[in-house]
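FAQ
Q: What does a multi-component entry look like?
A: The components come first, one per line:
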Amino acid sequence: MSSILTKEATQAWIQLHRAHRLLLARVEETLKTNNLPPLVWYDVLFELSQVKEDGLRQYEIGEKILLYKHNLSRLLDRLEKKHFVKRYTSAEDARGNRIIITSAGIKLMNQIWPIYRDSIRENFAGKLSVNEFSELNKFLCSILE
Amino acid sequence: MSSILTKEATQAWIQLHRAHRLLLARVEETLKTNNLPPLVWYDVLFELSQVKEDGLRQYEIGEKILLYKHNLSRLLDRLEKKHFVKRYTSAEDARGNRIIITSAGIKLMNQIWPIYRDSIRENFAGKLSVNEFSELNKFLCSILE
DNA sequence: AAAATATAGTTGCAATTGCATATACAATCC
DNA sequence: GGATTGTATATGCAATTGCAACTATATTTT
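Then the predicted structure of the entire assembly, as tokens:
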């Protein structure tokens, strides 16, 4: 609760948010200029692509990508309207539905990834060594615990 | 341009964004339950409080907190309507204006900070040692270069 | 110095997000 | 097993954000 707030922690806090904002803005800009949808579409499609054919529940996607459930619900509306995902009801729990990615969704993912990847390369991957990224990742994981 | 995208860099990329989203969500939630405005209000007021009495230009604030100019313009509308900041025209450059923080703005900042600080303490400051935060900060600064 | 270009900020409108509440089903309690 | 509480998702509405175009002034070019 009342751990000390050092100068170092404060500085890291500020830089963390600056880094995120700047990097995200650059990726979004690149996607936009390539006529691709916002990054969060990719995030959802990616999570869906990682699982077997019976897909994911909305709340499972929400936990992975950290989005309010009502916003996810409407994001899925948009994705479904464009046929990138499909909702279907499963007997398992009739309150909700399961979401699966369609082949069009996979195709879109494959369109987005090379652009996204280049943006990560250009803005991020060259800035630190492998060991430094490994350290950075370790720190961030500790923070998320 | 085409630096290699290692597993380590990719992992760090993902964790960076997860960490940001989670931490920001927690801070915003805490602010809200304390009937305080969103964090970006604090960001603006803080930047204004760091400078002398003649304030900042909009584009200067924008550079610091990384916000589109049109969104900043309207954020300042809201802040000005509540008398937390004031716009005034300076002879220096008649295209724009300068923004200063009011005493009410300073008061609001001082209300937000203890809550914000507690949230940083609780969700962030205890997770790493001083040296680790220092390293983390160093890495993040390298990324921002 | 007039014309062309760039910069600072604003505004209308559409899309998205946040907030509160609603609906529908599940799980638990008595 | 009926009532209560909890969970999963959806929806109406207001606030915010993103996008494109616009106004006004500065700067640069010729």
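Q: Is there any commentary attached?
A: Sometimes. For this entry: The domain at 7-144 of chain A is CATH 1.10.10.10 (Arc Repressor Mutant, subunit A).
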